[in-house]
Each structure stands twice: as structure tokens, then as C-alpha cells.
Amino acid sequence: MSAVITSVIAIGLYLCASITIVKLITRKQAIKKTSLTALITVAVVAHANGLYSLMVAGNSIDLAIHNMVSLVILVINTLVLFSSIKKPLHNLFVFLFPLSIAAIILSLALKESGPHFASVTKGVMAHILLSVVAYSLLAMASLQALLWSWQSSKIKKHRPMSTTNLLPPLQTMELLMFEMLWAGVISLTLAIAVGFLYLENIFDQQLVHKTVLSIFAWFVFAGLLWGRHSLGWRGNTAVKWILSGFCLLMLGYFGSKVVLELVINNY
Fold it and tell me: Are 198 and 124 in contact (CB under 8 A)?
């Protein structure tokens, strides 16, 4: 099937899953994990199929920013899907699926905006894939941090909102946040190491900001994990460190891509 057809199918399935989850929550009915997981799995597969058709052409890959955003969200959905098998995390999809739909629509709308294909070696491809996995895991950890902070604030002020019922318990949220953080730091470590091995121009003028900011972000995340292990950091302290590190990481990656694709290329 073409990229457009599979992408539209993914949009429909994401929308259907979102409506199903919201209805079950508002009616205070138990979520049937088996059927819902099957629906989400098909949606994720359709999303992956459509995005692959948009991004890959022979030995080349389209690294346009809209495709990379869609890929990051796809990886996040996949990670949460696997985690939801053992943890009560299905409610998080209510927040993720609207982003997924928007990302797919953006990829389809901009697929003719201009060629961004590049031929890459296996080493560079490994660096790209590890980077995407790292960004996805750390983005998920950051999303968990934001939701945890918001949920905790409402509970402390004794003003719980109906939307807080969409979220898993605070303890589960914090546990998943640090699990994602650990996995993200390991992936980021591997991505940086592979980059130094296979990218000859890693400190090139167009890459130096990405490289330096990624390394700074790694130190922020590693510092938090050390503080968690040695000093027992958690809660709002952990939230601040995670968001600071993620801002550095995203500024290094998406900031440079925005400048290169939307500013420099237009002159």
C-alpha cells in the first residue's frame, strides 16, 4: 500500500483508540487491555509502514525534520505500548495519539516540500537510529516529568481535576520516568560513541552545536542519575534536571535542523 493510504489508516486507528480510551475512562469502565492493545499495535504498524515509505528510497533516507518528528513519536508510542503490557499506562495514549495524528498529517503535507534524501553508511545509520531511540526515550521521560509535576501539584492543592484520572498513579509515573531516563541515557551514550567512531566531521561547523549540546545534555542526565542513586533525588528536583537536559538535547538537534532547513536553505 502507498504511504498515503497506510498513513490515513494509522490516523483513523489512532483516533478510534483515543475515543475508546476516553469513553471507558469517562464511564469508569475497566479497560480491556487485550483488544485495546491489538488496536494500538495495528495503528503503530500502519504508522511505521507509512513513515517508512515516506523516508526510505533505496539506499537513501529522508531526514527532513517533519519525518524525524513523526519517527520520534512513533518510537515513543512503541515504547509505551510495550511498557503498558505490565504497567497501567494505556491512559497515556490519550495524550500521545493527538500528537501522533498531527505528526502524520505534517509528514504527508510536507512530503513534496523538497528532497532531503541522503545516502548513508551503516555506521552513520546506526548513529541515526540510536539517536532517535535516545531522543524518544528522553522525550518520554520529559513528558512523564511534566505530567507527574502537574498531577502532583493538583493533589497537593487538594484540587484534583477529572483529567488527572486519565493518568496512572504518581508512583507508577515516577518509576516509568526513571526507567525511560536510564534507557535514554544508555542509548544516548551509544549514539555519541558511534558518532565519534563513524562521523568524520562530527565537529564540523554544521554539527558542532549538536555535538556539544548533546554532550552537555548527557552530563545533565548522568548527574541526575548519580543524584538519584547517591542523594535520593526525586520529585520536583528530578523534574527540573530532566527538563533542563531535554531542552539542551532538543536545542542541539531540532534547533540546528530548523536553522539549516528553514532558514539557510531559503537563501
Answer: yes
- Would the pTM of this model clear 0.90, i.e. be above it? no
Strands 117-119 and 60-62, by their bridges, are: antiparallel
Q: CA 8, CA 137: separation in Å to the nearest integer? A: 26
DSSP string, the chain: --HHHHHHHHHHHHHHHHHHHHHHHHTTPPP-HHHHHHHHHHHHHHHHHHHHHHHEETTEEE--HHHHHHHHHHHHHHHHHHHTTTSS-GGGHHHHHHHHHHHHHHHHHTTTS---EEE--HHHHHHHHHHHHHHHHHHHHHHHHHHHHHHHHHHHTT---GGGGGSPPHHHHHHHHHHHHHHHHHHHHHHHHHHHHH-TTTTSTTTHHHHHHHHHHHHHHHHHHHHHHHT---HHHHHHHHHHHHHHHHIIIIIHHHIIIIIGGG-
Number of CB atoms found within 10 A of residue 182's CB:
15
Asked whether the beta carbons of 79 and 140 are under 8 A apart, the reply is yes
Note whether 102 and 26 are within 8 A (CB).
no
Q: Mean pLDDT in each 10-residue stretch from start to end of the chain (267 residues)? A: 86 92 77 84 94 77 80 88 80 86 89 59 79 86 84 70 61 83 92 82 63 88 91 86 90 61 47
